[in-house]
Predict the 3D structure of the following.
Amino acid sequence: MILFAGVPVASLYFIADELSEGNHTVRVVDLARNATEKSFTVDLAAPELVIMKNSAATQDGTHLKAGDTFSIQVSDTYLAAVFFDGEPTSTRLCNADNLDECAHIIVVSDLAGNRSEAKFTVDKTAPSFSLNAYYLVGETIVLDIDEVNGYTVFLDGIETPNLTFFANDLSEALHTVTVIDLARNSAARTFTVDLSAPVLTLSGFSLDGQAELLDDGGFFTFVSPKSKDSFSNWICRHRYICLAFCMMPHRLPIVI
């Protein structure tokens, strides 16, 4: 006679899915009333695995930057082992600084063979990109970002999906591009949009009157109304910056 949970049964086979989770006992009794008992446990649930990032629960596939901490929280009555990158471990708390910069996997298994896993990536490197200092009329600003783990771009603090900007569409001012990757590493670069042509003014101060600008094939020449006047002071200015100064007629290349 076979008794399962104290009840006679005719079957020699049982399907775990049809049994309740918990401990069960099979008792076999022969005609002489000799009896043998065996117990087993049905465990249909995978271990509950939670990854904590900086003391807050986070989702599978999270990214950690330098200085981030993570901990492993496992809940299972019949826990068997915890594996980190394929190796058994008893560690439950770690710092990203102590891990290689790559993808990692945690696997938890119980005595019934149920398993759960969680993946995360350690990324300690900020995104890399470069920009020119100035962009002029008609020029294009192109972001060539070196980052393997995904990122978000912000232009002057506003998130944007664009990696290309046109100088003519931006205000004539200093702008900032910030790139933040999935681990929250960030990099920022600034550039200036200058859409206005240079303004060149020539002013002379002398005893005799104003200076005269002679267009001399790419050069400018400071002259005095009286060629023998050696006491004239000539100043060439570009947006209030003094570019040249002389006290007698002088020939200089125009460089702006």
